[in-house]
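Hello K.,

You asked for the raw outputs rather than the summary table, so here they are, unedited. I folded two proteins back to back in the same session to keep the settings identical. This is the first:
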Amino acid sequence: MRIAVVGTGYVGLVSGTCFAEFGTNVVCIDKDESKIGRLLKGEIPIYEPGLEALVEKQVDAGRLEFTTDLGAAVKKADAVFIAVGTPSRRFTRDADLRYVYEAAKEIAASLEGYTVIVNKSTVPVGTAREVYDIIKTARPEADFDVCSNPEFLREGAAINDFMRPDRVVIGVESQRAADVMKALYRPLYINETPMVVTSPETAEIIKYASNAFLATKISFINEIANLCEKVDGDVQVVARAMGLDGRIGAKFLHAGPGYGGSCFPKDTMALAQIGRKHNAPQRIVEEVVEINADRQQQMAQKVIEACGGSVEGKKIGVLGVSFKPNTDDVRDAPSLVVIPILQEYGATVTAHDPAAMEEAARHLEGVTWTDDPYEVAQDADAVVILTEWNEYRQLSLAHLGEKMKTKCLIDLRNIYKVAEMEDKGFHYISVGRREVKPAADLKAVQEA
């Protein structure tokens, strides 16, 4: 089979490359000539572990191509994937579908023979029908179907998520289209990957509902962390015990500075907007959005309080600015809220991140960037861990402390143990955990 992928952003490039790994002939298309030029030279425009090697492998095998010529690619394709951006509108916060609609119009002009048009972008309910209407209006004689095939790729683990997904969701209205999609995903049958074949509208809801539920788990455990701090509880123990319940599960029950990235913030706001539009308010999701916005503000205040109630004239070191490890993505990252607040209150900030400094520098002014994580501690009044990169899990605490003016570490990801940090002489602040050593007998029970 042969497919075309419109858009070489995160979803389009990863999906196209992985389909090529399955043995499908893939052409990835983008209007951005510079981006296509870079890809033709083997330069990957996004940071994703393992992607560069996989792209090189598939290009060498002749299964993966890049072009700006949409028409030529569409004419030869059995399926055309729309994987363009759907950013949030500035004021209404619903999804901006202009790029999806433009892609549909351009695809319509080049269709030859039966083709399945696949919405891979995250889009509101009803978009598949809108894409169908756009193409049908432009080309009444065209032989095509429209499918909703949402992606569930985690940045930093996208290749594994595509190759070994929990499920594949296929939203179609004809058996013919379902057969094409099943053929594309046939390699996953070996792993007995569940295939959920449903209507386009249901598929569109599944994507938003899934991300909103995961965001809800994050906001929930952050609220519990606040309670733990008030009553001397330990949110990590609470989360572990909750996660052992098979009905709940352990994933996404990690207290911290709130969620960010390209999906959760955008998708929760879009789902809330969809609910209001259809007179079915999503009140839980609306509250989750507010909790997360407040959370990032609260974390900035937590840093200020740890510094004695004021950061005026103080130097703060920050470890991690990406919204999560293994990505250079800073979209809606907690760092974009926390750092400006600290600066507003008079702090100077030095920061390090293994991958995201160049991207973050476009959004953050007045930050001193360093390639050495220990340099953020030089003469620092406090160091803040904002992202749980592996590089920060085994820092030499002695070396870190020697560089600091004041041994104050605010760990907003709970990657160190309270007792260990206090033993090493740090004023250690974490999230939702006891800030003093447990009694000897309790400590022994916990370790047992």
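The second followed immediately with the same parameters:
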Amino acid sequence: MKKTLILGLLAISGIAMAQTDTTAQKVDSGFVFTTIDSVAITPVKNQHRSGTCWCFSTLGFLESEVMRLNKGKVVDFAEMYVVSHTMVDRAEYVVRMYQNAQFAAGGSAYDVIYCLKHYGLVPQAEMPGIKYGSTPADTLPVHKELDAVANGYVKALTRGLGKLTPVWKKGLQAIYDTYLGVCPTEFTYEGKKYTPKSWAESLKLNADDYVSITSYTHHPYSYEEGHPRFVFEVPDNWRMDLMYNVPMEDMMRIIDNALTHGFTLAWGADVSEQGFTRKGIGVIPDVENGAKNTGTDMAHWLGMDAKSKREELTKRPLPELTITQEMRQEAYDNWETTDDHGMQIFGRAKDQNGKIYYMIKNSWGTQDFDYNGIWYVSTAFMQYKTNDILVHKDAIPRDIRKKLGL
């Protein structure tokens, strides 16, 4: 594919920022994006071989919040501090549930907010999170061994051991301390001493300001009396985060309103769709009319393998499915929509045909991707594949906030 995309991204003083560009011209193939609006973000990071997207994306969201609340102040939060606290908490939950719950590396945006409230946050320099290896490649997280060891430890606790000792949790904590480092309880930052909680407070972060929102019909909407919030039923919402439930149209209004007023959002999404590509595009193409949409001869189209069809449907702007609330619900009910990945929504752009896309900060690094770790996700994809969003309550339109009692 000819790379004709106008990125509109630059690094300024260590901050990745979207740049408005009005020079995009209409072309017949490829994507040409013009930025509509964007909010400051910190540089793209790399979760590498770890199942910690939920932590990278939500801390990226909070780093943008720090910039918004502190006149552009840039911080770099330590992901592995949050991972350590979260996984030990999750193990305790699984043990209390007699292994009738999932112990896995995945998590939700709420895990980070819970950590902010109960444990605070620390700078990346205080807990880099890599306690093994000496080559440059070893500076990125590789958690296959850690996950296997911790999972084996937790499973062993519920296999007929009888009464547990009071030190089992210390044993598990020692595993995470060994692989990730010991969580700091006090540190010096810019010449001042802090605890993790006092540092987060100094950055004006208040966990109670952030709310989770979703949009499904198997529970009443939160506008209805007596139904304020519900526990979204996905495995990684093990902390039983209560989410506000709104119609799809209002969920999209919240996203747009946030971006218009200088807020970003943490985004929980399903990225298993064939329209979410490694090239930085997320679309819901009209597959049934694929040959017609791509201009491909029908016989040739029918002879293509799945990978080739996917490439044809995602290499330039094409018609997409019209998403409804019923489609969202059906995909969730039949396991087509799963809680795959966490990212950060930070802006909007339009393609050469005027169609709107959302600008997404991923956590897969910047190498080997067309757009340096940024994804462009269509409105249809956002409507269809959003599991939930986390946002500051002030970013919600006033009329919706009133109906939710916020």
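The radius of gyration is 22 Å.

Happy to rerun anything if the numbers look odd on your end.

Regards,
P.
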